[in-house]
Every structure is written in structure tokens, then in C-alpha cells.
Amino acid sequence: xxxxxxxxxxxxxxxxxxxxxxxxxxxxxxxxxxxxxxxxxxxxxxxxxxxxxxxxxxxxxxxxxxxxxxxxxxxxxxxxxxxxxxxxxxxxxxxxxx
Length: 98
Hints:
Layout lengths: L5 H4 L14 H9 L2 H10 L9 H7 L5 H5 L13 H11 L4
Helix pairs in contact: 2-6, 3-6
């Protein structure tokens, strides 16, 4: 799953470094979707962000993220882009519900 989410979207991703700690959006996706659904959503998600769902993502995802407490570059205003799973979550939230 790292290649679907982290490698494609995360500016902090380092393929040679295996970390036990994943971003909140990565964990959120794994708790709520199957691996097939994650792959499908990640392949359809655009590489850019609209931030139109930012408050919802903050409430649903970031509030549970370890990085929010320990230092999230995006939420702290230090980074231009959020974590890798953010784009996938944003894409899913913007999809029309049938």
C-alpha cells in the first residue's frame, strides 16, 4: 500500500527507510477501506490538492494522527503539502454519493 499512497503522494516518503509510524491519513484509509478500495482511490486521486475538504479531514483524520501532536509540518504551516493519504481522502470526500 505504501507504493499506492506514500510513493505517489508523500513528499516525506523515503523508500529505503521503513518506519512503523504512518501518517494519520494512511491509518485512516486502512481502518475504513479494503486494500482494493485504497488502490482504486489512490489511482484516481489527482496529484494536486484543492483543500476544499480541509476542515472535514482535520476533524476526521488529523485529530487522530500522532504527527498532529508531535509536529505535523502541514498543520504547523511548515510544509506546502500535507501527508500522502490526504489527497486520497480528499478525493473520496469530493466524490458524488450515489
